[in-house]
Design brief:
mainly beta; five-stranded antiparallel β-sheet; 166 residues
Length: 166
């Protein structure tokens, strides 16, 4: 199933949920997970992460507004591809916005198509207390991210493919 809004598009695999929204006076955010997403959640999915079952995978892609020192393509938001494929070794417990035993997070800031984003992903291995194992190439997050496309920046910049393919 294709989900698209606010210049963000993805092909949602079977068994996954996704939504793209924009709060009043806010910027676009994508949430997708291989479990039921809460109806109303914070931009970084605190509710989703707290309700994540063993084997759960959650992804948030949220856009930031340029200005006040944030320049797309520079500094923290340097242009470049995402670290695909995501590997289990990329995930750390201290990266979580909301700490939860047995869960591991990843953050990556980047600019694509002239738009600055933060990718925030959380995994919870199937066994409680288990460390994410293997190289992660079987992570469903990789399949989802490989389908994401992002249209060009506000103000008429040309559309472009998000730098998310491996």
């Amino acid at each position: 199933m294709i989900v698209q809004a606010h210049g963000i598009r993805l092909d949602v695999p079977d068994g996954w949920e996704a939504r793209i929204y924009r709060r009043p006076h806010g910027d676009p955010t994508l949430h997708t997970a291989n479990f039921a997403l809460p109806v109303d959640d914070g931009d970084f999915g605190a509710g989703a992460v707290l309700s994540m079952p063993p084997g759960g995978e959650f992804l948030c892609l949220t856009e930031y507004r340029p200005g006040d020192g944030l320049v797309p393509g520079r500094g923290l938001f340097a242009a470049g591809p995402l670290p695909l494929p995501l590997r289990s070794s990329h995930f750390r417990p201290r990266v979580l916005h909301v700490a939860r035993s047995g869960s591991f997070g990843l953050q990556h800031f980047f600019t694509t198509a002239g738009r600055p984003f933060c990718l925030y992903a959380v995994i919870r291995p199937p066994r409680t207390g288990a460390r994410a194992s293997g190289d992660g190439t079987s992570l469903g997050l990789n399949r989802v991210l490989s389908t994401v496309s992002i249209a060009g920046a506000r103000g008429g910049a040309p559309a472009g493919r998000a730098a998310v393919r491996p």
